[in-house]
Amino acid sequence: MLLVSLLLVAPAVLAVSVPASESPHDHPVKRSLGARWYHDEHHPVYNLFRRGGQTDGITYPAVGSLTWGANFPKSTPDSGQLPQAWVDALNVAVNTGKIPDVPVAEQEHGADPKYPGHDPMSPEICSSTYKCISSAAWWDGPEGYFASSFDDGPQPTTDKLLTFLQEKNVHTTHFMIGVNILQYWSEFVKTFEAGDDIAVHTYTHPYMTTLSNEEVVAQLGWTMELIHNSTGGRVPRFWRPPYGDSDNRVTAIAKEVFGLETVIWNEDTEDWSLGSGGTTLETIAKQMQEWLSRPKSPGLVVLEHEDSDDALNAFIDAFPKVLESGWKFESLARLFGQGQAYQNSNDNNSEVKPYDIMAGPNNGSMIMAQSSMAASSGPSSSDSGSPTAGNLAASSPTPEIAANAAASGWDRASSLQWILTTMLGASVMTAVTLWV
After folding, report:
1. pLDDT given for residue 60 in this prediction
2. How far apart are CA 287 and CA 338, in angstroms?
3. Helix (H) or strand (E) holding 246
4. What phi and psi, each to the nearest 5 degrees, are found at residue 141?
5. Helix H segments across 213-364?
6. Three-class secondary structure of residue 354 per DSSP
7. For residues 426 and 57, what is the distance between their CA atoms, to the nearest angstrom?
8. Distance (Å, whole) CA 128 – CA 239
9. What is the CATH number for 92?
10. pTM of structure
């Protein structure tokens, strides 16, 4: 539960001052991430975002309220004001050799990031911008599947996408930008309540390889914190780097600190350039027909955006052809997650497990901090029924979804002391019960 406290402390920190292989592979399913990153409740990771009782124990500010928005950066997060637990988790990963010593990329005038004196395709760097395919990232879908996702939401045009998907009784994954969630919070709520999956697309959409380690943590952490606090405690499992720009260092930080799986794509509609002299609807239609006509292995992971009517029209026109061509249409997160779209919940209607919150494997630090949010022993009567993104309390935890990682070296006596000195009321009793 160490990672649980990580999420809780983040808004409090902000409030004080004011989140490889080079060759193409022919395997259509997920490349292994290596060591499993789920941990049982006795691992120190859970104290980063500790919860009490059988719910997540928190009454969150309503999405869209002034209190809700005040907890998060309004623009690029300050990497000098990170929650200490995030910094500790990063330091553990670096000091144990889990973060490759890859130089920060340089960029000029919006061009692709470069690594002066280094080959971006080398196994040491493996830049996805240069199409180096790493075993630590998703590029292809399972055989026969069209793994659906959209970048850059939420947007004013999101309603149009949601309406179409609901008419067709299908779902997708939305890789969302933190500042967009703050601005278009109503569309965010509608997306969650529609049952679509929420994933991370960073806080302000930068080229991630040009950022320092701490800046990478800030971009990912604050976006995860915002989604977590706006969905009743759900923790995203997947992220997609803006412009597809990642490398071994950035991918490792996402995995080791936050448990995030990196997703790229194997086909690009370039729909972001519609109306600006780039691609056209006709070009996208032709490309899509070519992709849909090819063999079903590997599965399709097509880059699409929900930021314009034209981009959505391109998707809407292609959708019937996806089914007619014999492809199975599925939300990327639940497809790649084998039914588990979030790190601690299957979907927007399933129970939220309070122990698997942002469970990166190197969150070994202990913190003593309390959330500025009010604690709650469980949902009120108004929280029953269908979940809402605005103020959703978690249900009883499910059994472990994945086998837990190996022994952690956790000191139970120290853990109990920490719990007793930081938890209040019912949370103390619950924590003691967990450790007896």
Report:
1. 87
2. 28
3. none
4. -100, 165
5. 213-230, 248-258, 281-293, 309-324, 332-336
6. coil
7. 10
8. 14
9. 3.20.20.370
10. 0.75
> In the predicted model, what is the mean pLDDT of residues 217-229?
98
| 406, two tokens | 């190996």
- Residues assigned a catalytic role: 151, 305
pLDDT, tens digit, 9 for 90 and up, residues 281-334: 999 999 999 999 999 999 999 999 999 999 999 999 999 999 999 999 999 999
Closest listed residue to residue 76, CA positions, set 211, 168, 197, 248: 211
Give the closest residue to 354 by CA, choosing from 318, 393, 406.
393
Q: pLDDT > 70: what percent of the chain?
A: 68
Number of independent structural domains in the chain: 1
Average pLDDT over residues 324-350: 97
Q: Which of 45, 51, 83 is nearest to 423 (CA)?
A: 51
The SS3 assignment for 263 reads strand
Q: How many residues does this entry show for the chain?
A: 436
Whether the CB-CB separation of 263 and 238 falls below 8 Å is answered with: yes
What's the domain range around 297?
2-435
Contact 173, 341 (CB under 8 A): yes
Answer whether 331's CB lies under 8 Å from 196's CB.
yes
What CA–CA distance (Å, rounded) separates 318 from 267?
14
The CA distance from 75 to 182, in Å, is 10
Runs of H (alpha helix) within 105-241: 158-168, 178-183, 185-193, 213-230
